[in-house]
Every structure is written in structure tokens, then in C-alpha cells.
Design brief:
- The chain has strands at about 1-5, 10, 15-25, 30-40, 45-50, 55-60, 65-70, 75-80, 90-100, 110-115, 115-120.
- By secondary structure, it is mostly beta strands.
- The strands form 2 sheets. Strands 2, 4, 5, 6, 9, 10 and 11 form a 7-stranded mixed β-sheet that branches. It has a 4-stranded antiparallel β-sheet with strand order 1-3-8-7, with no helix packed on it.
- β4 (about 30-40) and β5 form a beta hairpin.
- The radius of gyration is 13 Å and the shape is globular.
């Protein structure tokens, strides 16, 4: 499995970005997908996840109401729409895939990780 994330960049506080992650190598609709992030000097943390159909989602409390995860199984792509961005959202964002939606929030059990994309929010 390969995961290719894109869409990061520099944005001012209050702005928006949309990250995309293209999945290849296996059947996309068989996998739950998610996003993690890691800020400088901090541990990697779970952000959000979505089940295979898109019918179930889960969010870290600090991003609820601001971030939205979605997927397009026809395009093998998962998206992360990030609105009302804050400087504390600055991090490298990683796309992940796992066969089990229930465990995807536990990064130690994730099946596949993509390379990250940098998101920088200026104040």
C-alpha cells in the first residue's frame, strides 16, 4: 500500500486548507482511513478517522467543528478539510490506512503510514 498526501502549505490563522491522500496498492474501500499529526517537539497525535464507507467518523476533541474528514472510494482518496485554522494546528500531517476502524486511533496498531505534508498556520 502507498499513501500520497498533498495539500499542505502556509496559511494565516482563521484560514482553510484541504489535504488529500491518494491510496494505491490494495482495495481502498476495504480500509478505514485517518490522519495523524506531529508538531515540532511533540509526540504524534491522532486527528481523525473514517470508516470504509464514510458512514462513521471520529475526531480529536480540539478539531471537532473545524475539521472534516471525507472519502471518495471511486477516486481512492481521503480528504481532510481544515477550517478556522489555529497556530496550534501547525504540524506535519500524516495519512494512515488500517483494516480496522476501531483501532485506527491507536497509532501503534496502524497498518500503513504515508509520508507527511507540512501545515503551517501563522498568527
Amino acid at each position: 500500500v502507498q499513501l500520497q498526501a498533498s495539500g499542505g502549505g502556509l496559511v494565516q490563522a482563521g484560514g482553510s486548507l484541504r489535504l488529500s491522500c491518494v491510496f494505491s496498492g490494495r482495495t481502498f474501500s476495504s480500509y478505514a482511513m485517518g490522519w495523524f499529526r506531529q508538531a515540532p517537539g511533540k509526540e504524534r497525535e491522532f486527528v481523525t478517522s473514517i470508516n470504509w464507507s464514510g458512514g462513521s467518523t471520529y475526531y480529536k476533541d480540539s478539531v471537532k467543528g473545524r475539521f472534516t474528514i471525507s472519502r471518495d472510494n471511486a477516486k481512492n482518496t481521503v480528504y481532510l478539510q481544515m477550517n478556522s485554522l489555529k497556530p496550534e494546528d501547525t504540524a506535519v500531517y500524516y495519512c494512515v490506512a488500517d483494516s480496522d476502524f476501531e483501532y485506527i486511533a491507536d497509532g501503534s496498531k496502524v497498518d500503513y503510514w504515508g509520508k507527511g505534508t507540512q501545515v503551517t498556520v501563522s498568527s
